[in-house]
Amino acid sequence: MTSTLSQLATHSRPTVSQHLGGRLWSSRQSYLLILPGVVLTVMFSIYPLVMSWYYSGLDWDGFSSRKYFVGLANYKDLIADGFFWRAFGRSALFTVVATPIELALALLIAMVLNDRSLKLRSVYRAVIFIPVVTTTAIISIVMSFIFSAFNSPPNQVLMDLGVVDRPIDFLGSPKTVLWTAIGIFVWKWVGQPMIYWLAGLQTVPTELHEAARVDGAGGWQRFRFITLPLLKPFAIIITLIVTAGNLQVFAFFQTLTGGGPYFASELMELFIYRMAFGTSEAGASSVQRLGYASAAGVLFGVALMIFGVVQTLMLRKIRRAQLQQSPSQQEQG
Amino acid sequence: MTIDQVAARTEPVGQQRGTARAGERKRKTPLRRRIRLSVTHVVLIVVGLLWIYPFVWMLSSSVKPNGAVFAGLGLIPTQFFFDNYTTVWSDGNIGRAFLNSVIVSVTGVIITVLVTSMMGYALGRKRFPGKRILIGVLAALVVLPHGYTIIPVVNLIFSLHLDGNLFGIILAEVGGAHIVQLLLYAGYFSQLPASLEESAMLDGAGYFTIFSKIYWPLAMPVTATVIILQFIASWNSFLIPLVLTLSRPDLQTLAVALYSFKGENLTNYSQMSAASTISLVPVIAVFLAFQRYFIEGMAGAVKQ
Q1: Any domain includes A144
Q2: How many domains does chain A have?
Q3: I need a surface site. Which of A15, A304, B40, B123 has the fewest CB within 10 A?
Q4: Which residues contact residue A204 at a Cβ distance below 8 angstroms, ignoring those fewer than 6 apart?
């Protein structure tokens, strides 16, 4: 994704020196073509980004009522708000736990399905991918039934097997809710990185594996010394895409648990929604605090931005290291 | 480890090849391989069953009377009870929500295809001042989180007075930057030959004729992918339609209608399952019918 962007950018360097006015005029048709896209991007991506900074300085309790500018008071309140920090922590915990599990499981499945001699592999691939395309909100509702307390299917199986003697309230107990949710989340989304990994694995030439097999390299050795190094550039971009996706979990949690019980699964997006729109299953409806919610969004956004920039910088560093390495690798080959 | 090291390690195996044991080995390998394949299949079938179980459970519960949903682990109902479907379609307003979802998704797909193909063509084939800045901004938007800016988006729709109709939902939905779709178009257009353009220009075709009559039809494979990606994204969207219909239940899309239906009928599991089935069938059908485009489109995002 990023390499296409940079290719497009270098492609656009002007070669003929002309007056700016002339170049602008001769590109008028191109400007017309990009106009709708630019207008929509400004309206729904850039304007909201700027406005949420402005809103975060307001005391504002609804869309039509009066606004008061309060400066940094919202931020001051937020820093002292335990609910905010706990939601922040849960978002971080969720991302840090769910993402590696999802990525590793997806890689494992992708490697099994990458075997060309395996029959029905496209059927298995489709089956694992189906949850990815289905509506998150609806999957969560169905899952909240399947994992309900008492006679739900997992509890019946566990009781029949004698693993537990009392039904587990998977989603109703603050101790288990987040871990159950992580399990369901991985089930729902693992098909997506699986497709990404499969795309990456298809670039690994089968001759390399055959050659190593003839030379007696075992399965683990072939994975460690052939597959893994060749997958590295894919691994970076896949991790970026999946991590970014895993931070957008509103639909999943709002419909699965509503942030409950007792806020035990209230992640950042749910906290912002509760502050802004004042409805939540986890607690009584509160007063709408749009300025406060915006401030929470900005603080979390800044944290994500720092995280994103660090990731991008690391990516660049690894890319550069690879570029320096590749000539010497060719000599060896 | 270098290839030499691997070779050095495996030399003893190579020496054994001439002996009688090697013959045994050759006969054994296919069997061992067959066993391994069977084990793989067994594991994959178990995993596959786990993956479709919730859907089968939902289907099964949707044709059971509500009291029988949690009565046992059996998935095949003793008698089929289709009243759940007729009830939710009319009483639960699922029928109206279905229509809303169709309108929002179809319109959203059309707008997205038009906007991203036009922009992708200009970015992929044309030079113009400001292009580098535009690409820089788009690249930054990939990194910047935009799921946390829902309040200004809602406020914008309200101040444009678009909150009383479906168009507000559609606009907010397609307004987000569709970087993947845009890149698919830009990448595809940029690798098409320029000779097409030159010969069309000699025939007197203008800028927009060349785009719409020559290049746009050539991008059909990308258009198919974009249509499917966007249809599924719009059909599944939740946050935007939720906040824009908080005071207008008649505009709810399926996902939102089901969520509020759950809030009102907390224990009506069989009707909820019927409504869920109605909502999931179209998107699963679209996916199974156009699997190839969908998976290629997603894989394309990584390859590029």
Answers
A1: yes
A2: 1
A3: A15
A4: A226, A227, A230, A231
E strand or H helix that includes residue A222: helix A219-222
A9/B131 CB distance under 8 A: yes
For residue A271, give its domain range: 63-323
- CATH of residue A209's domain is 1.10.3720.10
Which domains does chain B carry? 15-83 (no CATH), 93-303 (1.10.3720.10)
Which residue from A12, A269, A312 is facing B147, i.e. has the nearest CB?
A269
* Predicted confidence (pLDDT) per residue in B83-119, tens digit: 888 888 887 688 899 999 999 999 999 999 999 999 9
Give yes or no for a cis peptide into B54 (omega within 30° of 0).
no
3-state SS of A263-318 is CCCCCHHHHHHHHHHCCCCCCCCCCCCHHHHHHHHHHHHHHHHHHHHHHHHHHHHH
Q: How many CB pairs under 8 A join A and B?
A: 313
Q: In DSSP terms, which residues pair with A59 in a beta bridge?
A: A68
Query: What is the predicted ipTM?
Result: 0.81
Contact A185, A252 (CB under 8 A): yes
Chain centroid to CA A38: 25
What is the distance in angstroms between the Cα of B145 and the nearest Cα belonging to chain A? 6
Return the bridge partners of A68, or none: A59
Amino acid at A41: T
Residue A43 lies in a domain: no
Nearest beta carbon to residue A133 from set B131, B147, B232: B232
Question: B118 vs A305: CB contact, 8 Å cut-off?
Answer: no
CB atoms within 10 A of CB B23: 10
Cβ-based contacts of A289 with chain B (< 8 Å):
none
> Dihedral angle at the C-alpha atoms of A310, A313, A318, A321, nearest 10 degrees?
-140
Q: What is the secondary structure of A203-214 as a DSSP string?
A: TS-HHHHHHHHH
Quick one: closest CA in B to A3, which residue?
Answer: B304
| Residue A18, in any domain of the structure | no
Going B260 to B98 to B281 to B295, the CA torsion angle's sign is negative
Residue in chain A lying closest to B262 (CA)? A141
The reported pLDDT for the residue numbered B144 is 65
| B146 vs A45, A139, A212: nearest CB | A45
Contact between residue B270 and residue B84 where contact means Cβ atoms under 8 Å apart: yes
DSSP string of A109-162?
HHHHHT-TT-TTHHHHHHHHHHHHHS-HHHHHHHHHHHT-STT-HHHHHHHHTT
